[in-house]
Amino acid sequence: MNKTKFTLIAIALIAQLCLAGKADAVFLFDTGTPTGITPSSLGSSQFLAAQFDVATYFRIETIEAWLNEEVGGTLSMVIYGGSVNDVPFGSGLVPNTANEIFAQTFSITGTSVTNEHDWHGLSGLSLQLDPGTYWLALEVRGGQTYDDVIFEGGQTSPIGPEAYLLDVNGSYVRDDVVDLGLRSTGEVVPEPMTVMTLGFSLLGGAALRKKKRV
Prior knowledge:
It is a single chain. This protein is 19% helix and 43% strand. It is α+β, with helices and mostly antiparallel strands. It folds into 2 domains: 1-21 and 190-214, no CATH class; 24-189, Jelly Rolls (Sandwich). α1 crosses α2 (192-213). It is globular and about 45 Å long. 26% of the residues are buried.
């Protein structure tokens, strides 16, 4: 077997392994729908964030937040990798904003109905995360327009810890009182080295069988 055929077979086998491991979407996290009436501002003057953990290699397909639709506007879903100490305020661990690994804008159409909430966010993603600690942030960045008060609290499975960022201090501050409504779905994916090892093991077996037939 020449080198080119060898490589093509290896690629095909690895691709088959990846497809075989594809499963129905599962929740990475799901706080449940908030039932509380505790208000938290979300706009250009205050961002909100919550920490989540990934236990195994995971590919995110959707990210949603429970948000007020009354005014509408544009904002960003942002994911930061890891935590840092909130040095200026000593409140605990907060997002490591120096390690931004994902950011995407989405929009909400205003309904003009007072305190009308629903799930809004991103779908059709293919964002793979390694095992570790992350923060999901709702941020209204330059040129974006969302500015409203969202109700939170009372979820069945609150995510946490959480934090907020005020434009007056320019850094996130730990605040475990905030209970955002957040959920994300996707699928567990094989560990990269496992896929490679299995692929080349199968390739080796195929090569041996071909050699015996010669």
